[in-house]
Design brief:
single chain; alpha+beta; three-stranded antiparallel β-sheet
């Protein structure tokens, strides 16, 4: 369903104190906590299965995932690749898991058995 929005426009950063279309609606502390949580949760899944798919609907979410991939790569000493699967999902993976699309597995996010016992903070095996 298409909805018409009347009198809606982005406020430019130079004319308004409100966030513009490229800024995050989160405070600095909230942004730091969101990236830290993604680092741990996505890192656990990548270490368990070599890849993870995660929804990213906005440019802010995509930038956040790119930063998380860089941080994971620096932490592990491995390159963590990131690519857009479609308009709404990004895929993070390590070398050797390029061809695995993951579409045959149901849903977004993480694998079963994921959590504190799944090898948090360890480099991917395989």
């Amino acid at each position: 369903m298409t909805r018409d929005l009347y009198n809606v426009r982005y406020a430019s950063a130079s004319t308004s104190a409100e966030p513009g279309p490229t800024s995050t609606p989160l405070t600095d502390d909230e942004e730091r906590r969101a990236r830290t949580t993604l680092f741990h949760e996505l890192g656990d899944t990548i270490s368990a299965q070599g890849w993870v798919r995660f929804p990213a609907h906005s440019p802010e979410e995509r930038r956040r995932l790119v930063d998380v991939a860089r941080r994971l790569g620096a932490h592990w000493g491995l390159e963590v690749f990131i690519e857009a699967e479609d308009q709404c999902a990004m895929r993070l993976y390590v070398a050797g898991y390029e061809a695995v699309t993951g579409r045959e597995q149901a849903g977004y996010g993480t694998a079963e058995g994921h959590g504190a016992a799944a090898g948090h903070g360890t480099a991917p095996q395989g």
